[in-house]
Write a structure and sequence with these properties.
This protein has 468 residues and is an alpha/beta fold. It contains 21 helices and 10 strands. Among the domains are: 2-203 and 232-271, Aldolase class I (TIM Barrel, Alpha-Beta Barrel); 396-467, no CATH class. It has an 8-stranded parallel β-barrel with strand order 1-2-3-4-5-6-7-8, surrounded by 4 helices. Strands 9-10 form a two-stranded antiparallel ribbon. Helix 5 runs parallel beside helix 6, helix 8 runs antiparallel to helix 17 and helix 19 (416-429) packs across helix 20 (440-450). The chain is globular and about 80 Å long. It starts with a strand and ends with a helix. The structure holds zinc ion. Zinc ion binds at residues 73, 75, 191, 195. Zinc ion (ZN) binds next to helix 7.
Amino acid sequence: MKFELACNWDVNLLKGLEKFPDVELFGGIPGSLIAGGRASFVAPEITESDAGKYIESARKAGYSFNFLLNASCLDNREYRKDEFAKIIQHIGWVESTGADWVTVTIPYLLEIIRRHFPELKIAVSSWARVESVRKAQYWESIGADAIVLSEEINRDFKTLEAIRKAVKCKLILIANPGCLYGCPRSFYHANVMTHGSQGGHSSEGFLVDHCYFSCTSEKVRHPEELIKIRWIRPEDVEDYEMAGIDCLKIIDRYKTTETLLSYLKAYSERRYDGNLVELLNLPRKKAFLPANVKYLLRDEYINTAKLMEFADITDYPVTEGLVLDNSRIPSNFLSFFKTKDCATSDCRECGYCGLIARKALKVDEGMVGVAAGKYEALLESLVSGDIYREDSTGSADEWDADAGKAHKKLLDFVPAVFRQAAEKKIASEVRASNGGKVGVDDICAAWLRATPAPFRKLIEEKIMEMRS
Ligand SMILES: [Zn+2]
């Protein structure tokens, strides 16, 4: 079995790969013309020139590089003469970096690449949702060299084997998908992520990832969903080899090097001792690269002060409250799926995943409850529209001079990117306690009430310093 690993553009990742000579890398650039799977606020940023150098080093070290062009939508700009020329130019640049593979979702894009860049090998993205013999044959007939099959069929061996028999091209499965099984948001989420990473799109990288929080909320409220997700256990790699799968694709590009290498090690050794949920994309401390919040703090699109109330939502260590002990999952876990057809079954009548959950999943109700509350509050604010509404704020004339000074001083401790949101939030929070002018006490109280949890300790210290 071969492995493809997500590239986070960290040079240490290349160093860490020395123990895994046979691995292939895949990566993309957010904010570029044909972007793809991860929006700019989560994907690690890199310039074309630095990406080019990175790919060159990877290729020199002997690693194949698959450049992601897997946008699910190009705004119909692909049908304009100016944009068509830019697309050709961009793919020309990709080829010039030495990348030997590209991944696409749009059939027209595959045809363009096949015609104009015959040397590039082309993989079909999982977003093309190839889950039948017919679709696989079609993509192969227009020139696909590999297909990343939809993760929906990761445990559907009848279909995997039928596709294997029907096509010659390389077949790839995502090893550690985090999406809900049968996710109703999958097409929409692909488009949201695409436009969120597409250079020149009118949203300019701004989005609130409603899909991610809806799905995470679902997993947290109904933890047996975690078993239904179509992840592949490192111990079960051989079953996929037997089914004729050539390669497993290990995601996610926005994770740290240490995390990515630990995944690769587990799949290479076909053994994982620990919490299987940590292989997925649920919030976990130190597993993710920091988000690019500059894309999110856009006052013209949203009430950033209200958005900031949810600043710690992805930092809350959900995986610590959901422990799926791999050693407690029966070794023949996968056998069940070889005889059962999930697509035509009702989970409530089947109950297999629920059974596994009761055996192997330990839920810390307290921790999980806190997380569920956070997701629900954000989702409610998005649906009610509250997060878009501006608060009425009092006038600064009602503040005494010292209050204004204290406020300015505290603002200086707020990272520049958050400052505007903080200023607005405090102005809407502050109340005069004695019916007269707003004083220093009132300002400090407002700061303590309104500062999001990750920054509260710092502000507490600064207030103590200021008042001592
Ligand atoms: Zn679109």
